[in-house]
């Protein structure tokens, strides 16, 4: 999600020479449109059974799919100066700017000066999670059974009552999906999934996912599928549900990987290349809409339908190349003034020999 979003002409050229994977941009588009849609839907007061069912039926196509794509584009190679600068520009700087921007907005709206910097505002946890997982990935894959370790950590973090930070909970809980994305690319899994039989099974998986989300409205809750807090109430039940949710998310993202066309989809793929614009910019817009009484104006099924159409339209507009171009400095800054030029990353320096306190242990 944190890759540069090209203009239309540049996009076609990047696809042609293999620098860009349009199928991943198409997945981003689907995920971010659903994220924006349900962020607005979560605000309305007329929410009913159908809306709740749709929320749970599509949950794995939102954050888990974004995490999977982020893992797909992550590298387990030792960090270089270029990759470190890229991480600072696309994750750290953007996070700090939008976090500060939204805290100022909240203060101007209701006078609440939030100083809880360990609790990211609204959807900003995503940037912290992706940044954290990309930093630890080169170290994590050095360990045997890193996939199993990630799954166990995801399950155990729910018992960590003292871990209140959304970003830490999210980072650990969603680590298996991130690693699945990385592994799928490294192992060439996509090629093995895109067969007629597997695609037929993938359609069945998506239909089953929608049906399960529809049927489990009374069992699931936003805290469970968000995986951003400790287990509560019946701990063993919630532990079991996290196992189910991780498997559910893994099956859905792999089904999408099998079904998504490899080539560019008109409008969808090029907009998906700018998914970060919609993800970040819709947040202050949605908050301002709420402060102006927007949710109270939504009345009945017609109001819900109009809101859904407006949210989807907003997401698409924010991803259009014409909108991205003047806002690129804000969402995809390439600032270098804060970067030191006299520092060499450890991976580029001369490696030190491995030594031991015990003689002869080499």
Automatic annotation (TrEMBL):
Naturally occurring in which organism (per UniProt): Propionicimonas paludicola
Sequence ranges assigned to domain Acyltransferase in this UniProt record: 22-319
Record keyword Transmembrane present: yes
Annotated TM spans: 29-50, 56-75, 87-109, 121-140, 145-162, 168-185, 197-219, 239-257, 264-281, 301-323
Keyword Transferase among record annotations: yes
Signal peptide range in chain numbering: none
The protein, known as: Fucose 4-O-acetylase-like acetyltransferase
InterPro entries recorded: Acyl_transf_3_dom (IPR002656), Nod_factor_acetyltransferase (IPR052734)
The organism's place on the tree of life at top rank: Bacteria
GO molecular function list: acyltransferase activity, transferring groups other than amino-acyl groups
Pfam families: Acyl_transf_3
Keywords, sorted A to Z: Membrane, Transferase, Transmembrane, Transmembrane helix
């Amino acid at each position: 999600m944190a890759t540069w979003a090209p203009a239309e002409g540049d996009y076609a050229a990047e696809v042609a020479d293999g620098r860009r994977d349009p199928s991943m941009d198409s997945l981003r588009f689907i995920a971010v449109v659903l994220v924006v849609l349900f962020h607005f839907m979560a605000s309305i007061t007329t929410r009913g059974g159908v809306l709740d069912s749709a929320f749970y039926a599509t949950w794995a196509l939102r954050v888990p799919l974004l995490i999977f794509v982020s893992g797909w584009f992550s590298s387990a190679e030792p960090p270089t100066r270029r990759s470190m600068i890229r991480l600072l520009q696309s994750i750290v700087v953007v996070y700090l700017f939008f976090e500060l921007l939204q805290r100022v907005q909240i203060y101007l709206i209701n006078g609440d000066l939030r100083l809880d910097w360990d609790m990211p505002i609204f959807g900003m946890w995503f940037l912290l999670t992706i940044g954290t997982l990309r930093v630890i990935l080169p170290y994590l894959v050095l360990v045997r059974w890193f996939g199993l370790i990630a799954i166990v950590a995801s399950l155990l973090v729910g018992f960590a009552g003292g871990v209140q930070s959304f970003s830490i909970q999210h980072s650990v809980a969603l680590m298996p999906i991130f690693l699945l994305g990385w592994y799928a690319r490294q192992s060439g899994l996509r090629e093995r999934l895109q067969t007629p039989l597997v695609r037929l099974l993938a359609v069945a998986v998506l239909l089953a996912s929608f049906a399960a989300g529809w049927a489990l409205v009374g069992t699931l809750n936003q805290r469970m599928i968000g995986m951003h807090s400790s287990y509560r109430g019946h701990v063993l039940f919630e532990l079991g549900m996290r196992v189910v949710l991780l498997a559910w998310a893994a099956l859905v993202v792999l089904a999408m990987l099998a079904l998504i066309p490899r080539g560019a989809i008109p409008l969808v793929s090029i907009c998906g290349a700018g998914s970060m614009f919609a993800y970040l910019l819709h947040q202050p817009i949605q908050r301002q809409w709420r402060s102006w009484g927007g949710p109270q104006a939504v009345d009945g099924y017609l109001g819900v339908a109009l809101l859904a159409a407006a949210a989807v339209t907003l997401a698409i507009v924010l991803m259009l190349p014409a909108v991205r171009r003047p806002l690129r400095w804000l969402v995809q800054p390439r600032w270098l003034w804060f970067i030191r030029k006299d520092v060499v990353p450890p991976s580029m320096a001369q490696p030190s020999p491995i030594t031991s306190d015990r003689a002869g242990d080499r």
